[in-house]
Amino acid sequence: MFNKVLIANRGEIALRILRACKELGISTVAVHSTADSEAMHVRLADESVCIGPPPSRDSYLNMHELLAACEITGADAIHPGYGFLSENAKFADVLDAHGITFIGPSAEHIRIMGDKIEAKKTAKELGIPVVPGSEGAVNTIADAKKIAADIGYPVLIKAASGGGGRGMKVAQTENDIGEALQTARSEAGAAFGDDAVYIEKYLAKPRHIEIQVLGDGKGGGIHLGERDCSLQRRHQKVWEEANSPALNEEQREKIGGICARAVQGLGYSGAGTVEFLYENGEFYFIEMNTRLQVEHPVTEMITRIDLVNEQLRIASGSGMSVTQEEIAFTGHAIECRINAEHPVTFAPSPGKIAYYHPPGGLGVRVDSGVYQGYSIPPYYDSLIGKLIVHGRNRVECLMRLRRALDEFVVDGINTTLPLFRELVSNPDMLDGNYDIHWLEHYLADRS
Question: pTM, whole model, 2 decimals?
Answer without folding.
Answer: 0.91
